[in-house]
Amino acid sequence: MDNMNLVFQMNKFVGDLHVFKTKVHNFHWNLVGEHFFVIHPMLDGIMSEIDGQIDSVAERLLMIGHRPHASLGVYLKHTVLSEAESKPYGAKEAVSFMLADFKLLLAEINILMKLAEKEGDQETLSLMTDIGALYQKHIWMFGAWVA
To answer: Under 8 Å CB-to-CB from 45, ≥6 apart: which residues?
Structure first.
């Protein structure tokens, strides 16, 4: 079984998650305005979720006989996400940026799911399905809040 496309996409996703967590942390540190007390603790929860997802995808790579990337340079070279400037962010701006990133990440998950299915890797497919379902919920909730 030649699963190198799947391995590449999984490693790319690990990098995406690291970049996303850094962005969320940036918003957490730099959040200002009237919704601070609602959004600031919510960002803690998102960062915790991302940590778990990074660990799950990296460990899955190890389980299928490959090593996860562990380099910021490699992450930035392959990520679909852009970095965010360190500056003050209002709640709607931060949530809007995260909403856009969740949509990009969900598209990456859909690619991973197709590759996992093609490879017959039900465990990776299940992992990505679970993360994708969570992202769909975040997209719905963030979109409702921003509207």
So the answer is: none
**How many distinct structural domains can be found in the chain?**
1
Cα distance between the two ends of the chain? 46
Span 40-92, pLDDT tens digits: 999 999 999 999 999 999 999 999 999 999 999 999 999 999 999 999 999 99
Q: Cβ distance 3 to 121 under 8 Å?
A: yes
CATH of the domain at 95: 1.20.1260.10
Tokens of 84: 């965010």
> CB atoms < 10 A from the CB of 111, how many?
16
Rounded-to-integer distance, Cα 83 and Cα 26, Å: 10
The whole model's pTM is what? Answer: 0.96
Report residue 105 as tokens. Answer: 């990440």
pLDDT tens per residue across span 98-142:
999 999 999 999 999 999 999 999 999 999 999 999 999 999 999
